[in-house]
Amino acid sequence: MKTRNLILGLALSLTILSCSKDESNDNSTVSADDAKVSTKIDAMNDDVSNIVEEQESNTYLNPANGKMAATENTMFSACATITRVPAFNTPLNSGDTVTKTIDFGTTGCTLDNGNVLKGKIIISFVYQPDATSHTITYTFENFYHNAIKFDGTKTFTRVRIPANGNVPAHPKVTMNMDMTATFPNGNIYHRTGERVREIIEGMGNNDFSDNVYKITGSWITTGPNNGTQTSTITTELHVKMSCIAVHKPLIVSGVITIVRGNNTATLDYGDGNCDNLAVLTVNGTTSFDIALGN
Question: Which residue, 153, 151, 152, is CA-closest to 183?
């Protein structure tokens, strides 16, 4: 499915973009540009959600300093600085509000997956070690993901799914989005919606590198000229953290359906291989490959 001619795909992409240059992001066009914008915002959502979930989880694994003992099991590089209120090495009591600031600096901090972050993510939650459901709020401060500036507030609720047979207890995270993305060319996109992520492989240890997640959900993105599109995950996405060693994009299968005006497109991530291609099909007729990445 993903072996279609990439050159043909790029040619079709350029044709679509050139024809819609003056009406980009209107209510009638589904283009390769829309798909690539969406995947770049998705990449930020995935990275930030991984970071926030890891930082909240670390607080429960190690309440004194909230950090992993084995740095090789984290997606962070050494250039991220983490501070906490109450301060690290301060005992936490149930009911305490914890605020953690993850500072990626101003020159660019490269994650293990190659994405470059700048600025700060600030997370806040109530420390409740005996609760089965946790809500975390996080905001951005002068935050950039691959040169795209993000503003806004997100919350997610992490629910502990009980063990069942051979499946150990594991988290299921519902992410609520309300954010603005400003691209280097000045285009601004606003996204609201929900993504639900559940680990399906690799649970039961503190090593993120072997995790596999499934993602469902839907969201609305409004772009320049107030063009609006609705995206729905119609076949659950699968994300393999182990693909970091092969390609930066981690989504390996699943389908997102995009509706814009009277047009419908699908973005198909394939059959599970760690490649960096997805197939965009517009109105069931025109198909071409989208190369993913930052």
Answer: 151
Report CA Rg, the chain: 19
290 φ/ψ angles, rounded to the nearest 5 degrees: -110, 120
Domain map of the chain by residue range?
A: 6-291
Q: Tell me the whole-structure pTM to 2 decimals.
A: 0.81
pLDDT per residue of the chain (294 residues) written in tens, 0 to 9: 443 433 333 333 333 333 333 334 445 667 788 888 888 898 888 888 888 888 888 888 888 766 554 444 455 567 889 999 999 999 899 999 999 999 999 999 988 778 899 999 999 999 999 898 999 999 999 999 999 999 988 898 989 888 888 878 888 899 999 999 999 999 999 999 999 999 888 876 666 778 899 999 999 999 887 889 999 999 999 988 888 777 666 789 999 999 998 899 999 999 888 888 899 999 988 787 887 766
Q: How far apart are CA 180 and CA 10, in angstroms?
A: 28
Task: Enter the DSSP assignment of 167.
Answer: B
- The vertex-260 CA angle with 256 and 264, nearest 5°, equals 55
Distances in Å between the Cα of 290 and the Cα atoms of 142, 145, 204 are 29, 20, 35
Task: Give which of 263, 258, 259, 217 is closest to 237, Cα–Cα.
Answer: 217
Q: What phi and psi, each to the nearest 5 degrees, are found at residue 10?
A: -65, -40
CA dist 132 and 141 (Å) reads 30
**With the C-alpha atoms ordered 136, 141, 145, 151, is the resulting torsion angle positive or negative?**
positive
